[in-house]
Every structure is written in C-alpha cells, then in structure tokens.
Predict the structure.
Amino acid sequence: MYNKRYSILILLACLCLSVPVQAQINERVFMTDYRIDPEKTGELRIEFDNTNFFKNNEFDSDFLKGYSLPGFWAQFKLTYQPLENIKLEAGVHLLRYWGANKYPNYAYQDIANWKGNQYQKGFHALPFLRAQLKLSDRFDIVFGDLYGGASHRLIEPLYNPELNLMADPEAGLQMLYHSKPLDIDVWINWESFIFNMDTHQEAFTAGLSSRIKYNKEEAPLHFYSPIQVLAQHRGGEIDTIKTNSVHTLMNGAIGFGAVWNINHRIIKNINLELDATGYYQQAGELWPLDDGYGLYARASADISDFRVKTSYWRCDNFISMLGNPFYGAVSTSEDHLTFKNPQMLTFGVEYSRTFAKYCSFGIDLDVYQHLSTTSQTPEGSFSKKSSTSFSIGAYLRLNTSFLVKHFQKD
C-alpha cells in the first residue's frame, strides 16, 4: 500500500519538475471573472463552462478517510447584456462522476438531506440563473447563482478547495466591492428553502471575505489584512421540527500578510501570511465542541513557472464548517473521536498553464504531515503517532462562448 502511494508521489514530483508552466491554480483554474464586459452590450451568447478533474487522496489519518474524485462539471448557459451594466444568464449545471449513474437529488454538502430518497439518473443537475447589476465601477450586486468557491478567496482552514469540484453552485444574493484600499465580498447562500408546515429545515450560509490593502498591490513590498467570516443557520420558524431544530455555526479568521514582488526572471514573488481563526457553535448541538480557535501560518513562492508552498496549523477545539477536516479537532471517520491540540505541517507544489483565453490546466501535489497528538473518546484518551497523507490533482477548465445575435440599441 505505502509503496504504491509513494511511487505515485515520486512520479508526480518528477513530472512537475519537467514541465515549464505557470502556477496559481486557484486564480487560473477555479476562479470566475465577475466583471461585465461593456463591449458585449446587446449580445445574446451561448456559453459553455466546464471543469474536468481527477483528484486522488491517500490519507493515513483518523481525521478523514481517503477517497478519489474522477469526473467533471459543466454549465450550458444563454447570456444576454441588455445594457452596459446588466448581465443575465440562464442554463443548467451538471455534475458527473465517472462510474456513477444515480445521484441523490438534494443540495450537496450536508444540507437538505430530506430529499435523500429521491435520485437523478445520469447527472446531478440543477438550474443555473444569474442576474447581475453593476452599480458603479467599484460595486456589483448579484442575484441567483453567485460567484462562489475560489472567488471568495477564503483561506484553506475555512474553505476546502475541493468544493470547487463537487459542491453545488452557491445561490442567493451577493455584493462585490473592489477599490485600491479595500476588497469586500458579502454573500448569502440559500441551501434549503421551506414552505409552511414543511418537515425539513431552512438552511443558509452567510459570508464575508474582505481584504484591507495598506499600499498598492504592485508595490515592491505589499501589505494586507484578510478578514473572513462564515455563519451557517439551520431551522426556520414555519417548519414542523420543534425539538433541537435550530443550529447556528460560525467560523472566522483575521490575519496579516506581505507579498514581496521581486519580479525577477526566476523568482516572481514571495508571500507570507499569518491568520488567527475561530469557531463558535451559537445554538444547537450539531458538533461535540462549542468553541475553539486555530493558528494558521503559510508561505509560498512563485519560482520561475512553479508555486511552492508550505504551512503550519495548530488548533484547540476548532471545527471548520466548509474546510478540510484536517483543519479541525473532530474526526469525520470515527464517531465520538476528537483530538487535543492537533498540529499539522503541509508542503505543496503546483503549476498551471493557460493555453488560450478560454482554456487553463493545472496539477497540484500536497503532503500533510500530522504531528503526534492525543485522541479522545468517551472511553478515554490515547496517544496518536504522527502520520503522513498526500493528495494529487489534475484539472482542465474550459470556458468559451459563441455569439448568437447582436441586438442594436433603439
């Protein structure tokens, strides 16, 4: 088992060292540009947006069992810009895993499992509807399907990058503000809607992701502070669930970072960031711990065409709602198992390449070194030795559109 795992690890590392490409997978592959192009005013277009992925997680840990994600998601949309500052989109979002033919008909990521006995054949399919209004050069408001996932720029302890592959599109309301000293992304993702006397819970997640920029981003030494908050609420006043039906969970992070823009032919930049994170269960008993905190220190460097990265994580009773369970003190693979002050080191390398304006490709490799800790169960406590896990992923993003008709202004 271990020989196979480390053979794959070495093979991918050799591949990374042999291909001259550019890094930044989140920015190049996962993010979606929300800016409205005024030159497309009056255009009715057909748009195809697709991410193909193969992710293999070889985990040697009680935090989470290993698994693989082979598949793709695709969006087919009609887009229309009646004015320079308004964009309308309508279509369908499809998710398919290779080897699967039947998909649960409910919002993924633990919400609204009241539809667990209903299934879709062939694909997990959802409608895609978005209306966007650009109120000024700095401010946009979005209704319907949001610019979510990596576009929120959440740190990894708060948001697992794998959700860019498998999570349902976020839908609700979003406000985006961008200026030289400040970026703000505020949204509410409505995962479960209820009608009067429904027997399932209302559920939504609200978020804030902001960045204070103390000087110009292109300055030789750029300083910034991320401020991030997530709050998830489950339970409504008109449902029929009356016993322990309300749950409110919160995550937050605040930090300080610096980017050294070297802009050399080989070394492009170096990024250092330190974040303090928090967790609070304000209502309910969904999780076995009520509050906790964590410390996250990370560093990355863009060297030639590669990004190399490392981080250190330590927490006390912290639980992440949307993050990788590695960044937490609760096991998702063993019932009633928690960890006392877990610590973890990570090492990674990634690269990405943009072949054209509408096509990008990326590969990443992450190694997780879990340090020795103490595991706790109702029966007692016991020591847990250090362990090593790793993850390998390959991604291909295609996003193109075709003009159907151009409507002239009256």
User: Anything to note?
Assistant: The longest helix spans residues 2-16. The chain has one domain: 2-406.
